[in-house]
């Protein structure tokens, strides 16, 4: 009992002094547990021990809700293995949302009363103290996310039953895809994933909507659930997230659709309506669902580059989506717009965005670009594969997107460890960096004299 | 006479109201003139009319001091053609430096007295009014740059004489490489360029030093010429430029050298000393000289990616180097460092960098990344070539670097026009954008209420 108390005290102390570090350790431990579970003979169809690099890669991919795979999920893993992956995605998704929420709250606390009120508004906790405690927060997160995933399963289970006429299978696959979609997990429980079901719009469009909802992030979901269509009452964060998400989805769909319109190896032989629907599907999946109905290797190089950019952008903050996050992009573009108009304030929807937020956004982008460049350079060196494929898989891993050109499966163990490290860094890096930077911002009493270098 | 007066009035008016627009038009006209000259039969060895896309590409490449070529300069162009190219580089280099200087001065004027003094300090014009007029400025620029180029020629002419034992040839090539090096022009007057002369360190190292000096930029040269080793008296701009340039050169040399150390198709079979020297040479050339002694196609993919990053970075402001410029990078990294330390001010060398400078830097980077992405996507679409090669040539064009994997020569006319447009945009885009943004910055009286979105 005494030891337990000591452990709890130690955890409390770390949580108070450095929540980011605690979460980095916890995520590592959770991945280790799932690596062990996936290594069990019972987890594979052949009842053999899965090699460490594949078990670790899959566990990392599932817990970070990325969806990249080194083995064919539907063929390699047993039902037990697939359930382990599903649970890993559920726990990973929940963990990421909880962690990011706690950090956002911690930032608001350190920024003082005014900042606190504002961050609470973003989290939609205007009611005093409702989300004051981590326990309450966790309860609300679990309730909300579980309900949404159950809602998706309720649509997917009959859809799969209608397709395959096997209730047991349909329940399993329905649940699996519901969890995988909402958590932006990207894992599939069939050998061919969604390929072969692309004619069933009930399945693919439900998955698409699930991914989109999941990618908006918890604070935005709370705002929408509470304020609904009263957009004026939405927080700035919710408005920015929704607007940028919609712009990216539709712009991505138009560009990708136009580029692939006549490509017979992707959507070229689909019907007119399906071409449009699956362009939107493809665009939403870069936000970072990671499902696909076409082989990403067959995209033309221009589409791959556009997909790279969309994956790098990612989804909403405090969500299971990865990437640099849409608000980061919004803040940077608003700063540039302010610059172009000669405004000294960065404005959006009648609000001023503090300068500090812009510097945090900048740091996140530079960290992301640096990690992707280093990861890409290492994998180029290891594989000697063309940049197209290596960059695609690197960004997909970093942005925990899970779209794949199949490079993951071809890599030697060293390459798999690099991608796993990228998933880990991509999952927690931007969140913890942004939180720790934002928490440090404070005013300066002493100023150096100003001098302006020439830029550009 | 009356018409001339009207034209002059119109030019004066445009120059006063929008110097950037004037320069965009002037550059276009200058390119047109050199396109016409290079189209003349006398300009080619075969005495035939060079196709418009090749003449326009070469003229753009020479005037923007890029150095990309669609035809082998030493084989296609006659002596007259090569002299036209040399003059185009000389005028182009001079024009860019003059333009950028005038814009930097205009910015300082609009930012008010305090800003003016500081910008003058950057231009090293503490003596009252010494550079107050464009005429005086132009005189100083011409004198300084011509003297440096003559200095380089004085070393290169005997070196080529010693190599080839032909005084006339040596004078021509010496002058050509002096102009090409200092202006970061990247053009060569031999069919194989510097390949075949890599054993003559007097030639290659003189070219390297010329490129490095040229890439620092006019304000830094003036500061160094005036204050010499009294570094404390250097402007912040000069300190940042020199420090970042040196870091990039040596870091680039170490990384590129390590990656290519055993590559027999590049530096792998050089002697130990030459491996080190030519790693440094290769690194300096990304800063944007564009000369090479090895085939860039033979670099391993990792080195190509690192080279991409170094070319994108570019050289100093108000120089003939391209890219986003080293002070832009310095400001962004200093902003991130300030963030990490929790400072609200961005500091360097005991000075505070205004927030506005950071937003300008950010805008420049986003503009550059956007143009490169669009250009790269278009060229991928046209060529269906691998991303490695297309990205390399695209960044080289945008950053007016001139290192080439030979894609320029393989492109259909449409692709050549795209690269020419990128050179034009890369040459003037970042400079004019930065100037017009900086000039617009002003203080705001009315502030919206503050609200902070969640970042990352
Ligand atoms: K994913
Ligand atoms: K150049």
Automatic annotation (TrEMBL), chains A, B:
Q: Which UniProt keywords apply?
A: Cell membrane, Ion transport, Membrane, Transmembrane, Transmembrane helix, Transport
* Topology class, membrane: Multi-pass membrane protein
Q: Where is the signal peptide?
A: none
In terms of superkingdom, the source organism counts as: Bacteria
Query: Where is it chiefly localized?
Result: membrane
What subcellular compartments does it reside in?
Answer: Cell membrane
Q: Which InterPro entries match?
A: Cat_transpt
Entry keyword rRNA processing: no
Q: Where are the transmembrane segments?
A: 21-43, 79-107, 137-162, 201-226, 238-259, 309-336, 357-382, 417-439
Ion transport as UniProt keyword:
yes
Q: Name one Pfam family in it.
A: TrkH
Record protein name field: Potassium transporter TrkG
**Lineage, broadest ranks:** Bacteria, Bacillati, Actinomycetota, Actinomycetes, Micrococcales
């Amino acid at each position: 009992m005494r030891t337990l108390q000591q452990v709890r005290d130690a955890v409390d102390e770390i949580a108070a002094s450095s929540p980011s570090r605690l979460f980095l350790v916890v995520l590592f431990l959770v991945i280790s547990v799932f690596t062990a579970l996936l290594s069990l003979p019972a987890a594979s169809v052949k009842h053999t021990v899965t090699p460490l690099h594949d078990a670790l890669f899959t566990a990392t991919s599932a817990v970070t809700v990325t969806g990249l795979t080194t083995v064919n999920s539907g063929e390699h893993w047993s039902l037990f293995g697939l359930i382990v992956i599903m649970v890993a995605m559920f726990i990973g998704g929940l963990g990421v949302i909880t962690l990011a929420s706690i950090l956002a709250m911690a930032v608001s606390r350190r920024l003082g009363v005014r900042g606190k009120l504002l961050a609470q508004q973003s989290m939609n906790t205007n009611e005093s103290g409702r989300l004051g405690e981590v326990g309450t927060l966790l309860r609300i997160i679990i309730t909300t996310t579980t309900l949404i995933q159950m809602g998706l399963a309720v649509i997917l289970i009959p859809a799969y039953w209608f397709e395959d006429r096997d209730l047991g299978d349909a329940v399993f696959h329905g649940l699996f895809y519901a969890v995988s979609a909402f958590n932006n997990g990207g894992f599939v429980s069939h050998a061919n994933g969604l390929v072969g079901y692309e004619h069933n719009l009930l399945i693919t469009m439900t998955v698409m909507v699930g991914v989109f909802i999941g990618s908006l992030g918890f604070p935005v979901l709370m705002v929408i659930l509470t304020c609904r269509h009263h957009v004026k009452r939405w927080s700035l964060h919710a408005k920015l997230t929704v607007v940028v998400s919609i712009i990216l989805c539709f712009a991505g769909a138009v560009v990708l659709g136009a580029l692939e319109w006549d490509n017979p190896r992707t959507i070229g032989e689909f019907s007119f309506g399906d071409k449009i629907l699956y362009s939107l599907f493809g665009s939403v999946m870069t936000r970072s669902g990671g499902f696909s109905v076409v082989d990403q290797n067959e995209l033309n190089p221009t589409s791959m580059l556009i997909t790279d950019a969309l994956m790098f952008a990612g989804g909403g903050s405090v969500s299971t989506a990865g990437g640099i996050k849409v608000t980061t992009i919004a803040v940077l573009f608003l700063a540039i717009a302010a610059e172009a108009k000669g405004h000294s304030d960065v404005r959006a929807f009648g609000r001023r965005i503090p300068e500090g937020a812009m510097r945090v956004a900048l740091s996140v982008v530079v960290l992301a670009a640096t990690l992707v460049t280093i990861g890409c350079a290492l994998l180029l060196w290891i594989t000697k594969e063309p940049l197209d494929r290596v960059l695609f898989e690197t960004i997909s891993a970093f942005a925990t997107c899970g779209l794949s050109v199949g490079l993951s499966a071809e890599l030697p163990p060293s390459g798999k460890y690099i991608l796993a490290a990228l998933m880990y860094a991509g999952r927690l890096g931007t969140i913890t960096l942004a939180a720790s930077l934002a928490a440090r911002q404070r005013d300066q009493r002493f100023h150096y004299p100003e001098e302006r270098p020439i830029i550009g």
